[in-house]
Specification:
Keywords: Aminotransferase, Pyridoxal phosphate, Transferase. The protein is an alpha/beta fold. Helices cover about 35% and strands about 15% of the residues. The protein is built from 14 helices and 16 strands. It has helices at about 15-25, 60, 70-85, 95-105, 120-135, 150-155, 195-200, 200-210, 235-245, 300-305, 320-335, 340-360, 400-410, 430-450; strands spanning about 40, 45-50, 55, 110-115, 140-145, 175, 215-220, 250-255, 280, 295-300, 365-370, 370-380, 385, 410-415, 415, 420-425. Bound molecules: pyridoxal-5'-phosphate. Pyridoxal-5'-phosphate binds next to helix 5.
Length: about 450
C-alpha cells in the first residue's frame, strides 16, 4: 500500500485552496473558488492562514450565537465523547432527555415535546410531514421572502430565488405575500390598511380560493432572516394564528435563524406572545458546533402521536454529542444572561445605525430585534429605489459585492441579500467589538453613497 502519511499537508494554505477548488463542492455556488483559509477563531473573531483577523458580524451563518470556541460547549462535547458518542434514537440517553426537558422549559407553554434532527432543513421536512399526517390535509402555505432549507420539501417551501435552481418542487405549496412594511404591495402605503401587512385578511383571501379544508399548515419565519430581516408589524402574527385556528390549520414557526436568543428572546414568537403548533429550530441552539436541529410540537400533537407513529426518523436524531452541546449552550446562555446582553447590544447597534443614516444617504431602512438586524440600501430615499435589483447577481450586484469585499479586507465579515446588509453579530459580543464593527461599516457604506 502507498505511504500516504505525507500526502495531505494540512497546513499549506495553497494546497487547501487547490483541493477546495478542484475536489470540494461548495453550497449554492459555482465551483472552483479559492477562498481565504480560516485557521482559528475565538469569541467574535476568526483569522486566516496569513494571520489576518476578522470581526464576525454575521455569526457565520447566523448560528454562532455564543461566538466561536465557547469553552463550556467545547467541554460538554469532549465530556460526552469520552462517555458515549452514539446510541440509537430509540434508546434512553441522559443528554437527550435533558435537552428535551430544556426545550419544554424555554419554548412557549403549549409546546412540550421535541424531535431532534441534524439541522433546520430536516426539522422543516419533519414538521410538514407531521402537519399533513395530523390534519389529514396536504397543502402548505409558505411565503415568498423565505428560506426554509435545501432538502426536497424544505426547498419547495422556500420562496428565496435559490429555489429556482431546482426543477421539481414538492406539490401542494401555496404562496403568501410577506408583511414587508418598507415595501408594501402596489397601491398600499399604510400597513394598518393593507391586508397583507395585517396577515389574517390576506390569508383569508387565499383560503377562499384554496379551500381551508385542504390546507394542513402555514409555515413562516416569524422574523424573516436570509431574505432581508423583515419584522412583521404589531398584530400580524396574532392575526395569522387566529385565522389558522379558525380553520384548524397548524401554524409552523420556523425559528431556525431567529431562535435561541437571536432576537433577545428565546424565540421570536415570544415578542408577540404567539403560540405556534410546531416550532422548528437549529443553528443557535448550540452555536453550530455540532449539527443539530429540532422540531417541537404542542401537547395536542404529542398526545396524538402516542397512538400514531411519528412519520419520520433519522439515524442521528438526538445524537448524544449534539444534545450535549445543546444543553451546554442553553445553560451557558442562562448563566451568562445572554438574552439581556443581546437586547442591550441590539439597541446600541440600532442607535448607531440611525446615527450612520444621518450621514449615509444610501440607508433607506433600519430594522431588527435584538441581534437580528438589517439595513436596506437605496439609491433614493424618497422613491426607495433599491441600490441593486431584487436577487441581483454579478455586475448588477456590484455595489453590494464591493462593500462586502471592502469590509472583509478591512477585517469585518458581513453578508447581504439583494439590497439588504444583515447585521447579526454573536449575542455575547463586547460593546468595544461592536463599535469596531460599526466604525468599519461606516467606511464601507461610502461605497453605496456614490450611487445615491
Ligand atoms: N430555516 C431557516 C429560517 C433558515 O435560515 C435555514 C438556514 O439558513 C434553514 C431553515 C435551513 O437550515 P439548515 O441549513 O440547517 O438545514
Amino acid at each position: 500500500m502507498d505511504d500516504l502519511s505525507n500526502a495531505y499537508p494540512t497546513h499549506d494554505p495553497e494546497w487547501v485552496r487547490d483541493m477546495h477548488a478542484d475536489h470540494y463542492l461548495q453550497s449554492w455556488s459555482k465551483q472552483g473558488s479559492r477562498p481565504r483559509v480560516i485557521t482559528g477563531a475565538q469569541g467574535s473573531w476568526f483569522w486566516d492562514s496569513d494571520g489576518k483577523r476578522y470581526l464576525d458580524f454575521q455569526s457565520q451563518l447566523v448560528n454562532a450565537n455564543l461566538g466561536h470556541q465557547h469553552p463550556k460547549i467545547i467541554q460538554a462535547i469532549k465530556d460526552q465523547a469520552d462517555k458515549l458518542c452514539y446510541i440509537s434514537p430509540a434508546m434512553g440517553s441522559d443528554v437527550r432527555s435533558e435537552l428535551a426537558a430544556i426545550m419544554n422549559e424555554i419554548t412557549p407553554d403549549n409546546i412540550t415535546s421535541t424531535f431532534f434532527t441534524t439541522g433546520g432543513s430536516a426539522a422543516n421536512e419533519t414538521a410538514i410531514r407531521v402537519a399533513r399526517h395530523y390534519t389529514g390535509r396536504t397543502k402548505i402555505i409558505a411565503r415568498y421572502r423565505s428560506y426554509h432549507g435545501a432538502t426536497g420539501g424544505a426547498l419547495s417551501l422556500t420562496g428565496d430565488p435559490r429555489h429556482h435552481l431546482t426543477r421539481a418542487d414538492m406539490p401542494g405549496i401555496v404562496r403568501m405575500l410577506d408583511p414587508y412594511v418598507y415595501r408594501l404591495p402596489t397601491g398600499h402605503t399604510d400597513p394598518a390598511k393593507c391586508p397583507v401587512a395585517q396577515g389574517g385578511p390576506h390569508l383569508e383571501e387565499l383560503l377562499m380560493y384554496e379551500n381551508p379544508n385542504t390546507v394542513a399548515a402555514v409555515i413562516l419565519e416569524p422574523i424573516v432572516g436570509t431574505n432581508g430581516i423583515i419584522v412583521p408589524p404589531e398584530g400580524y402574527l396574532q392575526s395569522i394564528k387566529a385565522t389558522c385556528e379558525k380553520y384548524g390549520i397548524l401554524l409552523i414557526a420556523d425559528e431556525v435563524m431567529a431562535g435561541f436568543g437571536r432576537t433577545g428572546k428565546w424565540f421570536a414568537v415570544d415578542h408577540w406572545g404567539v403560540q405556534p403548533d410546531i416550532i422548528t429550530s437549529a443553528k443557535g441552539i448550540n452555536s453550530g458546533y455540532v449539527p443539530l436541529g429540532t422540531m417541537s410540537v404542542s401537547t395536542e400533537i404529542h398526545d396524538w402521536l402516542r397512538d400514531t407513529p411519528l412519520p419520520g426518523g433519522l439515524t442521528y436524531a438526538g445524537h448524544p454529542l449534539a444534545c450535549a452541546s445543546g444543553v451546554a449552550a442553553i445553560r451557558a446562555m442562562q448563566e451568562e444572561d445572554t438574552l439581556a446582553h443581546a437586547t442591550a447590544m441590539g439597541e446600541t447597534l440600532r442607535t448607531e445605525l440611525h446615527r450612520l443614516a444621518e450621514k449615509h444617504p444610501c440607508i433607506g431602512d433600519i430594522r431588527g430585534k435584538g441581534m437580528f438586524n438589517g439595513i436596506e440600501l437605496v439609491k433614493n430615499r424618497d422613491t426607495r429605489e433599491p441600490l441593486v435589483p431584487f436577487a441581483a447577481k454579478g455586475d448588477a450586484a456590484k455595489p453590494m459585492n464591493d462593500m462586502m469585499g471592502y469590509a472583509m479586507n478591512n477585517g469585518l465579515y458581513l453578508s447581504f441579500f439583494s439590497n439588504v446588509i444583515r447585521l447579526t453579530p454573536p449575542l455575547n459580543i463586547s460593546q468595544e467589538d461592536l463599535m469596531t464593527g460599526i466604525e468599519i461599516l461606516d467606511r464601507t457604506l461610502e461605497i453605496a453613497d456614490k450611487d445615491c
